[in-house]
Structures are given as C-alpha cells and as structure tokens.
Amino acid sequence: MEINLVSDTVTKPTPEMLQYMFQAKVGDDVYKQDPTINALQAKVAEMFGMEEALFFPSGTMANQTAIKLHTQPGEQLIADKYAHVYNYEGGGVSFNSGVSCCLLDGHLGMITATQVAGAINNPAFYHSPLTSLVCVENTTNKGGGACYELEDLRKIKEVCDTHHLKFHMDGARIWNALVAKNDNPKVYGQLFDTLSVCLSKGLGAPIGSLLVADSPTIQRALRIRKILGGGMRQGGYLAAAGLYALENNIPRLAEDHRRAKELGAVLSKLSWVAKVEPVETNILIFAVQPHINETDLMEKLNLKNIFISSMGHGKLRLVTHLDYREVMHTYVLETLEKLY
Predict the structure, then answer these.
(1) CA angle, corner 101, sides to 175 and 98, nearest 5?
(2) Angle of the 35-47 helix axis to the 236-248 helix axis, nearest 10
(3) How far apart are CA 190 and CA 174, in angstroms?
C-alpha cells in the first residue's frame, strides 16, 4: 500500500468518474462545439456569479493568461513572496508578459491591503515600472493551505479600485477555502476581475482549470489561450471529469481538512519536530529539529511506503487528498509516532 502525500495532484479518477467521462458527449472545442466543455464552463461561471468561464489544460496556463490580459510589457504586478505565479510557473510572468513582480512579505502567503497600498509605484514616476495588477492565492500553497478572510480581500479590492489596478485570484485550491470558510463562491465573483479555479487537486479530476471573468475578458482570453497552445479538440472527456468532481467531491474536502489537522496534532507532540505551521485546510508544513536530517527522515518514511515532499531548509510538507483513505491515515499516524 503506497501512501502518497506529496501533493493533492496525485489522485487518480475513481471508477465512477471514469464512467462519467466515457459517457460524455464531445465535439471540437476549438470551434466551441464540445457540449460537455460548454456545460462545464457555464456551470463554473454560474457558481461564481460571473458571465463566462474558459477551460484550460492547466492552472499555470490560466494564471499566465490572466496576467497577460491585465498587463503590458514593462509593468509590474504585486504578489506575496510565496505566490505560485512567481515561484512555480517557470518564470512565465517575465517570459510570457514581460512583467516584473513586487513581492511582499505576507503572513502564510497572504498579503494585506495596507501592504498592497504601500507597494504601488507612483504612476507619474516614470523611472519605476507601472503597477497594474495584484495577484492573490487562495488557499496559499507555500503558505500551508491558509485561507484569506473575505473582509481582507474586500479591503485589497478597495485599494485596487482606488488605484485602477486589476485584481486576479489564483484559486487553485479555492474549493478548499470555500469549504473551510463556508463562503459563497458568488462573493468571489464580485471581488475579482479574473479568477482561476483548478479541478485536478482536491476535487480529483485528472486535468483542467478554468478562468472565470466577464464576457469581453473571456473573449480576449480565448485568443491568448490559442497563442499559448491551449486549444483542445474533443476535450469534453476531460471536462466531464470536472463536472463529476464539482457535483460529487466538494463536500468531502472537509475530510481532507480533518485528516491534515489530525496529522498536525500528532506531529506537534513529537520531540523530533521543531514546529508545525497552522493547519487550516489540506496542506501541512512542519519543520524538524536541527539534529534531524530531512533526507534521512523521508527515506525512513519511504521504507514505510509513505511519501512526502521537502520544501528545503528543514521544512517538509504533507498534503491530504481524495485517494488518502482512513485506513492509510491511521497507518501514517501510528508510523509517525514510532519513527524515532
């Protein structure tokens, strides 16, 4: 029994999801003739109370499209230093859009309206790049699955409106945030110019993200997706997995959150663990004591068929997900307690 806690991207489609995919009605989406993709796009747009959504093969492509939509070469976006768009998208901000990043030292990957306001360059001072976009991530990946409070996002939105900046959310794990905070997704639709949402993490679909916005923005996004090579033909088989996930897998995210918190509770009591970051959703980050070699620790776990990831500097990460079942959870808890 292999237990993979490296990421929530490692899940496999369930038999029920596969059956749903096999039965999908498909067409050529480049001609906008795939009925299942059209249905998925309409469903996600309606969920967030926005006009349209566009299906992408990856969250990175959706985020990069949003950045391209809202900026011009030589401009600057504001984000947290842990932001996925900066750390984990291959330098696409500069490669695709010619944009630089003003990185803020937030808390667990989350920034405040005060920080944003203080980072905006004076548009009349032509020696500095023009600030044009603010990007936030919810939940925060490198910040350990932390969730923004809606009031904090509203305050950032006010700053953006005052300074005529666009506001984008990388919602790769937005479903986890919605469950953890019991928020209405339509509120997010009112706050952001663009919002990317991912289907292939906690929801368990094999592939796919969507960009959500108003109709004119999505029409522009369609052209950028084409330029980036994101047009797909009979992609409805993939979209069907997303539809199944949205209809069946959102409430069960609470189980992932419970298990992550239980793992955190056990780790916090172990002598070889130096610190456990706050656990709010399905990501758990912890640090080991200086005398513990993290590579040795991971090898010990690997021998027990438990796989986690290193973030460097003595920090390690576990991510709970759809394929991490209760019997596995019990085994991991017992193994951690007996490891040293």
Answers:
(1) 105
(2) 40
(3) 15
